Amino acid sequence: MRPLPMTATRTPPHDFDAEQSVLGAMLLSRDAIAVALEHCRTEDFYKPAHGHVFEAISSLYGEGEPVDPVTVADELRRAGLLDVIGGPNLLIDLLASTPSTANAGRYAKIVADHALLRKLIGAGNEIADKGYELGEVDEVIAKAEGLLSSATAGRNNGPRQLNVRRVGDALFQPPEEPPVLVDGLIRTGELCVVGAARGVGKSWLGMNLSAQVDRGDGWFMGALPIRKKATVLLCQGEIDEWESWRRWQMLTGTGDPPGGVLETFDRWRIRTVRRRSSNGASSDEYAEALLDPRLEATIVEQGVDLLIIDPWAVFFAGPENDNDATEAALDKLRALAMSHAVAVVILHHLGKSTEAREPEDLWRGASRLADWAATRVTLLPHYTDRQASAQGMTRQQARRYVDVKLLRRSHPTPDFSAVLGDDGWWSRWKPPGEDTAGRTHLGIDDVIAACRDAGGAWPSGTQAAASMGVAAHTATKLLQAAERRGEIEHFPGPRGAIGWRLPGPKLTVVGNPGESI
């Protein structure tokens, strides 16, 4: 198609205000980008500089990168086009000229309609030229129809297609595998959530992970191998600087301090706002997340590889049960992780009852947080409150023993049990007397033999479990089974404990028939 004739009186149709408004809206809102891409393309912009900006925004959006004046300017600079469009000031002017991001679809349609008119004018000029050539009429008509069809191609044919790839091609040209930080837990660009009740030791877990990833070796919680040394940004939302110093002293002792761990006590927030978009007679309300720019600036300047957020409730400003707000915040974090090759670990307080024994029950109130994660980790107390009380353990002591339940999207990671030591380190723990399937090796005859070896009695269930070398709840089941068979009996122990003993001969007191001791 030949160039459009440029005369002083016949300027091709265009609307600079609409072009500026749609580009400014795209710089302000990812939703505006999605809407604009449904209506117009790079070649629809009359001003070449506007077309270059649109192409840069589309490229960043398609790759999952953040879109703002800084990233777009960098994209144009790398393409050698920043000076061509007039420098970064053009992007600032575009922001200032945007009346509303909610009307991005309308602005984009105006741009597309003017582009179509220009194409029709160009096609009309070529058709007129073909007519003056005095060729075969049928041939001229066919060429005219072809020109009109080409000019209106894509008109009202639906939205722009998604970026797709052929699986067959991908198999022969595989993408680069993201580096694994902790095998079975997280790799670069992924999101991992760790949930547990309060008082279990999640903050210790976050500090353990920071120190071990900083070293680049060892086994996280004694079970998951560290694969890569990385720079960590630990966002402390619950403990202050003095308490953090005390904990690092416990964890490192006289060893090398974690020099690659960065720590912040600034409570940056992921805020969410409700916006409304209109399209003709209808309108929709949606949530948009706003990330504190200091976080991204710190990640970029410090070269952070792993971001740990402890806990989610402190840094997320929206309501936990608002699914739209939570998803908007997680989408913003995911874009941050993908654009800067950062792994993200979120520590979260589970508000459900600690007696729940299934992870799905505990995560029900924060399902969106778990659904977006590549790995979901749930720390379930190994002992119930009743079991802990029967063993003479305080609730705080009992919560140090957990069953670690993992749900991973890629290769499954086996569950295991762990304990938080007095030194602040989590380590793998195998419940006494149980194999990996959780079955006991002992029977009732073993219980009787162990009780006889202990002198015929145990003053508490805790001592019975220790004597038999099994977990407290396992010991309780065995003792109750033995009692049902009449092989053992319980009695009141010291300080309200329940003791267990072998039945002994009953002595009859002379002169008091039927009374025994």
Report on this model:
This protein has 517 residues and is an alpha/beta fold. Helices cover 42% and strands 17% of the residues. It has helices at 16-28, 30-39, 48-62, 69-78, 82-85, 89-96, 104-132, 137-151, 167-172, 202-215, 241-252, 293-302, 312-315, 323-340, 359-363, 367-371, 385-390, 395-398, 444-453, 461-468, 472-484; strands at 180-182, 186-187, 191-196, 219-220, 224-225, 232-236, 261-264, 270-279, 282-291, 306-310, 343-349, 375-381, 401-408, 416-420, 426-428, 457-458, 489-492, 498-501. Helix 11 links the parallel strand 6 (232-236) and strand 7.
Main beta sheet: 9 strands, mixed
**Largest beta sheet: what is the strand line-up?**
7-6-10-11-3-12-13-14-15
Shape: elongated
Proportion of residues in β-strands: 15-25%
Radius of gyration: 34 Å
Provide the residue-averaged pLDDT: 82
How far is the N terminus from the C terminus? Answer: 114 Å
Helix segment count?
A: 21
Number of strands: 18
Class by SSE composition: alpha/beta
Residue stretches low in confidence (pLDDT < 50, at least 5 long) are 1-8, 434-440, 506-517
Q: How much helix is in the residues?
A: 40-55%
Give a short summary of the structure.
The protein has 517 residues and is of the alpha/beta class. 42% of the residues lie in helices and 17% in strands.
